[in-house]
């Protein structure tokens, strides 16, 4: 079994997805991951600004 660096594996998977299904599905996945990442990052950063009623 050959070992591939993660970037190589990701590139091969993206190329395969584009060849089989076109760029639409790949772009959809990238956009969904970006939106979820932004939402999680905003939640993580903004949770520290919550007021405490101690």
Notes on the protein architecture:
- The protein is mainly alpha-helical and 54 residues long.
- The chain has helices at 6-21, 23-46.
- Helix 1 crosses helix 2 (23-46).
- The longest helix is centred in the middle third of the chain and has 24 residues, at 23-46.
- The chain is elongated and about 50 Å long.
- 0% of the residues are buried.
What labels describe this entry?
74% helix, transmembrane helix, membrane, 54 residues, transmembrane, mainly alpha
Secondary structure: elements and pairs:
Blueprint: H1 6-21, H2 23-46
Helix pairs in contact: 1-2
Transmembrane segments: 26-46
Keywords: Membrane, Transmembrane, Transmembrane helix
Summarize the structure.
The chain has 2 helices and no strands.
Strand content: under 5%
Q: Tally of extended strands? A: 0
- Mean pLDDT comes to 78
Task: Evaluate the radius of gyration.
Answer: 18 Å
Weakly predicted, low-confidence segments: none
- Sheet with most strands: none
Q: What structural category characterises the helix and strand content?
A: mainly alpha
Span between N and C termini? 58 Å
């Amino acid at each position: 079994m050959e070992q591939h660096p993660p970037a190589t594996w990701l590139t091969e998977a993206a190329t395969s997805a584009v060849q089989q299904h076109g760029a639409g599905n790949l772009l959809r996945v990238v956009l969904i991951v970006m939106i979820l990442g932004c939402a999680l990052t905003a939640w993580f950063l903004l949770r520290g600004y919550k007021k405490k009623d101690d």
